[in-house]
TrEMBL record:
Keywords: Membrane, Transmembrane, Transmembrane helix
One Pfam family recorded for the sequence: NfeD_membrane
Principal location: membrane
Protein's name in the database: NfeD-like C-terminal, partner-binding
Species for this entry: Aedoeadaptatus ivorii
CC annotations in GO: plasma membrane
Transmembrane annotation, as ranges: 31-50, 57-77, 83-114, 126-146
Membrane protein topology class: Multi-pass membrane protein
PANTHER family from the UniProt entry: INNER MEMBRANE PROTEIN YBBJ (PTHR33507)
Subcellular location per the Swiss-Prot or TrEMBL entry: Membrane
NfeD integral membrane domain sequence ranges: 33-140
Gene3D superfamilies linked: Nucleic acid-binding proteins
Domain of life: Bacteria
UniProt xrefs under InterPro entries: Membrane_assoc_protease (IPR052165), NA-bd_OB-fold (IPR012340), NfeD-like_C (IPR002810), NfeD_membrane (IPR056739)
Amino acid sequence: MKKRILLFVFSLVLLPQAVYARGVEIAPFLYLVRALLVIAGLSSLVYGLFSRKGSASWIFGLFCIVLYFGLGLYIGIGSAIPFVLFLLSGILFAVEFVVPGFGIAGISGIALMAYSLAASMGNPSVAAGTLGLSALVLFVLIRNLIERGEDIAFLEKLISPEKQYTQFPAACAVGDRGRSVSPLRPSGTAEIDGKRLSVQSVTGFVDANRPLEVVSVTGNQIYVKEV
């Protein structure tokens, strides 16, 4: 497996030189490769947000992004500044994660990340197409993960002002009913029997102030459905 990964990396670095040496137009090929790296990298990073064991996704995603910027520098497209801006966007996301609520840091992080990727693309049309396709892929990916009921505790804290409530296993029982306090994406906060609890929806997204019923309790994790 490691040999295949190394072969893939070397092919991305050496193939452009081989194509250039044969006098073939290299720009379309490199634009395609770098666009695929952006899509694969962002998709892996987003998937890592939804996974309890997302270390492999994080590593692969960061690898694709670093390779994207590295190829740009290697062939003389852009400079190191966009890569620095991308790192700063990551810092802004970290700040947003620490400070509850989807505010200035989170929005600035998204804008800075998009700008850094576009600035390193070298062609405005290609940059717009790549970011547009990436947004579409991420939308489909996030929607499918939410519909599957994937745990998004990291993302929930990033975008929800509601704090996470802890509870003991006996905080409620199957069949208890209540209402959602915050949107469930699918994790969120609900009020059940007068107690605010962190819950997870088994039916995907649930809007705030909707009736809920507890369907199972596993450890300190409470699973609910909209009724």
